[in-house]
Amino acid sequence: DGGITQSPKYLFRKEGQNVTLSCEQNLNHDAMYWYRQDPGQGLRLIYYSQIVNDFQKGDIAEGYSVSREKKESFPLTVTSAQKNPTAFYLCASSLAHSPHNEQFFGPGTRLTVL
Amino acid sequence: KNEVEQSPQNLTAQEGEFITINCSYSVGISALHWLQQHPGGGIVSLFMLSSGKKKHGRLIATINIQEKHSSLHITASHPRDSAVYICAVRPAYSGAGSYQLTFGKGTKLSVIP
Questions:
Q1: What is the pLDDT of residues A24-38, one digit of tens each?
Q2: Which residues in chain A touch residue B102, judged by CB atoms under 8 angstroms apart?
Q3: How confident is the model at residue B11 (pLDDT cuts 50, 70, 90)?
Q4: Mean pLDDT, chain A, whole residue set
Q5: Residues of B in contact with A106 (CB under 8 A)
Q6: Residues contacting A89, CB < 8 A, separation 6+
Q7: Of B45, B98, B100, Cβ closest to residue A102
């Protein structure tokens, strides 16, 4: 079955620690995205990548970092510089040349920083 | 700046009722998406529209490009329809960021048996 996997589903970390969220897709999509979702707010774009070894900042990239060494993987690191990291994080992917950019979403990771 | 507004924010309905969720946006778009997010958090795509109307089972989505408005209708609602429904648009301008979507805040629907 093709799809996007995110792990783990729930993650707890102490304040000041970096943490890496996993995102893997087997849809052969070129583009991948990381979103953050907070209660009462729409999804906000953190980073996106249109091709391997290239990525761009989204609207709220501060305190986050990504890498795209393989087409199927786009891990997100939440650094200690992120002031309010507790949130629900969603990964998505799409075909790079999709005219309407239909995105497919993973199940999400809920990060709680204690 | 592209704004996407959804209404209502919260909606409670009795099983069997006809439901309408609205989405308005402020810039020209190439496509509008309706997404469904279940309590567990995962998101699935329901519809992708660039014009007219689409139907899938009990769900109907319409879009009026001139008025910059879309509606999602659910006929004969059922408790399993309880979820957050999210509208997202892809702006029509091209260039850097052309892959980006702008999301509404979502409409939380609860269908009571």
A1: 999 999 999 999 999
A2: 42
A3: very high
A4: 91
A5: 42
A6: A6, A21, A34, A35, A36, A37, A46, A76, A108, A109, A110, A111
A7: B45
